[in-house]
Design goal:
The longest helix has 14 residues. The protein is built from five helices and three strands. Strands 1-3-2 form a three-stranded antiparallel β-sheet. It is elongated. It has 121 residues and is of the alpha+beta class.
Length: 121
């Protein structure tokens, strides 16, 4: 028997995804599109950031308190630094509630990254 649980993800409304870039198969990326996408992929290229991103994305309810995801083998200031980089790249959004900060994956940005890499387009 599996210990996994079903997590309901938010459903995007029509128009909720704003692709930043055309699919890679449509032609060469512009300089601006390449720089924008490189910043996002660069933010995810660090193993600690990828783990934090994964923890937020898979957390029940689609958002996670920093207190629930900070145990990734690095100090708290380092966790804060990595979360800041993910926010700056547009991959996470954050909201302060009292003394805690809650993080949520920015679904339109992730969808745009996925659409750019879709070879079926």
């Amino acid at each position: 028997m599996s210990n996994s649980e079903v997590v309901e993800l938010p459903v995007l409304q029509d128009g909720g995804v704003v692709p930043c870039c055309p699919p890679i198969t449509d032609g060469e990326l512009s300089v601006a599109d390449a720089e924008r996408m490189a910043a996002m992929f660069k933010a995810l290229s660090d193993p600690v950031r990828l783990r934090l991103f994964s923890r937020v994305a898979s957390h029940p309810g689609g958002e996670a308190c920093v207190c629930d995801i900070a145990d990734v083998g690095v100090s708290q200031p380092t966790v804060s630094h990595h979360l800041k980089k993910l926010r700056e790249a547009g991959l996470l959004t954050s909201e302060r509630r009292g003394t805690w900060v809650y993080y949520r994956v920015a679904p339109s940005v992730v969808a745009a990254m996925s659409a750019m890499l879709d070879l079926r387009a």
